[in-house]
Amino acid sequence: MTAVQIERPPAMTASRLSKSYGDHRVLSDVDVAIRRGETLAVVGPSGSGKSTLCRTLVGLEEFDRGEIELDGQWIARRDGPRERLSRCGDYRRRRLAMGMVFQHYTLFPQLTVLQNVTLAPRRVLGVDKREAVERAMEVLERVGLGDKAGSFPQHLSGGQQQRAAIARELAMRRNILFFDEATSALDPELVSEVLHVVEELTSSGLTLVIVSHEMGFVRRAADRVVFMDAGRIVEVAEPEAFFEDPQEERSRTFLAKMAA
Amino acid sequence: MSGDPTVRAVPLAKPRRARRLPPWEVSRPYALSLAAVVALCALLLWLVLGGVGGDGTYAWDFRVVEPYLSLLLKGLRLTLELTVVSIALGMSIGVLVAGARLSSIPLLRWLSSAYIELARCTPVLVQLVWVFYALPIVTGVRLSGFQAAVVALTFNVAAFYGESFRSGIQAVPREQVETAEILGLSYAQRMRFVVIPQAVRIVIPVLLSLSISLFKDTSLVSVLGLNDLMNNSTTAALATYRPLEILTVAAVMYFAVAFPLTLLVRRVERRLSRHRR
Fold this sequence. Notes:
The complex is a heterodimer of chains A (260) and B (277). With 260 residues, chain A is an alpha/beta fold. Helices cover 36% and strands 25% of the residues of chain A. Chain A has ten helices and eleven strands. In chain A, the strands form two sheets. In chain A, strands 7-8-9-3-10-11 form a six-stranded mixed sheet, with helices on both faces. A five-stranded antiparallel sheet of chain A has the order 2-1-4-5-6, with helices on one face. In chain A, strand 1 and strand 2 form a beta hairpin. The radius of gyration of chain A is 18 Å and the shape is globular. Chain B has helices at 5-8, 23-26, 28-49, 69-101, 106-120, 124-139, 145-171, 174-182, 187-217, 229-240, 243-274. The longest helix of chain B is centred in the first third of the chain and has 33 residues, at 69-101. The radius of gyration of chain B is 23 Å and the shape is flat. Chain B starts with a helix and ends with a helix. Chains A and B meet through strand 7, helix 4 and helix 5 of A and helix 1, helix 8 and helix 9 of B.
C-alpha cells in the first residue's frame, strides 16, 4: 500500500451492518472497509452471509441497522428495524459506481452480447450509439470475446457468458465490482478462463470484492481475505497469513474442511 | 423483440443460429400429425361415403349441403369476427388484469383476483346467458346479441390471458431483474428492455392455445340466437332434415381454422425453446 492510497477514504465502508430474516440474523454488526483499488476476497461456509453482505452493499437488499458509505460519504443508513432506511438523495446515480456479476442468468437472453453491453451505457449513461459500440468492443476484446459481439447468450459457453457479463460491467466504468460466486455455477473446466479475466482486473485500479470458493484463486489474487461465519466477520487478514496461520478457531475449521 | 429498433440495429456480425436441423427433422412432428389427421379423415370418409361398416340404416348424402354452403360460410365469418374482437379486447384487458394482480396496491390485487376467480370458475355458457339476459335487468343497458357475446367472451378470456401474462412476468428469473437494477435501469426500462421481451416469449404458446379454445367456445353463442357457424348449421339442419351431413361439414370448417393454428403453436414453441437456456 502506498501512502497516497492510505490518505484517501476507503472505496466503501459498512458500519455495524445488521440484518435479520425473522429470528435468523444474517448479518451481525458487520464492520468492513474496502480499500481503494484492492481485491477483497470474502470467504466462509455457505449461509455465512457473504452474498447477503454484497447484495446489501450494492443496494439490492435492505438492512435493519447500520450505515454504508461510498467514497467517504454515506449513501444508506438505518438506526434500527423500527426506523426507516434512508438512502442519500442521489442514490440512483451514486450506486452506478458499483457493479455486480451474479452466479447465473446474468446476460439478457433476448439481446446479443453487444446489445447486452451497450444497453445500460446508452439508456442509463446516455452515451451515444457509436461510442457505446466502440466502448463495448473495447471491453469485449479485453475479456477475449471480440468475435462474439453478434452472438446470442445461449450460443456461448457458461464461461463466455460470465466474461461477457464482466465486460458489461466494465463498459459502465464502475469503481467497485462485486463478484457473487461468479464461477460457482460453471463446469470446472470453464472456471479458469473467468478467473483469468478477474485476475487481470486486479491490477487495473478497480476495487474488487470477490465472494468465492476457489481458495487457490483467492490466495493468488486477493490483497485481503475476509472470513465470515454466521453473519459475522470473524477474521480479516492478508491471504498468506490467513491460509498459513489463521488466528481464529472457526477459520481453522473452515480451512480444514476446504482442504479435505 | 426488444421493441427498440435502435438497439436491434447494433449487431456487427450476423447472429449465429443454433445447429440447423435438416428439413425432414424440423417438419417431422407436423408431417406426422398431418398424416394422422389425413388418415383419420380418409377413414371417416370411406365409412361415410362408401356406406361401408355401420348398420347400413343411414344413407349419407353430402349433396344436400351444397345449397347451404354460403349460409355456413357466413356463419363462419361471424364466428371469426367474434373471435378476433374478443381476442383483441381480452388481451388488452388481460394486460391490465395482470398489472393489477402484480400491483403493490392491495385493493387492486384483491379486485383482480376476485375477477379472475369469478371468470374462471363459472362456465362460459352461463356467462353468455347471464350477460345477455340478466345484465340488462341489473344495469338497464340493453346489448345486442353480438355485443353481449363479445362482452361475455371477453370477460371470460381476459381472466385467462391475465393469468398467463402474470405467470410469464413472474417466470423471468429474479437475477435478470436485479442485473437490470444494478445496471441502473429505471423500473420502466427494466420492464421494457428486460422483463416484457422475456415474458412474451414464455407466454406466447399459452396465449395461442387460449385463443384456439376461445374460437371453439364461440359456438356457444348460438344460444343467444347469433347467426354464427353453429347456429347457421342448426338452421340448415332443420331445413334439410340432414343434421349429420351439415354438422359434419361445420366440424370440418371449425377444424380447418383451428388445426393450422395448433400447428403454429407447436412451431412457435419449438422456435422459442431454442432461445431458452
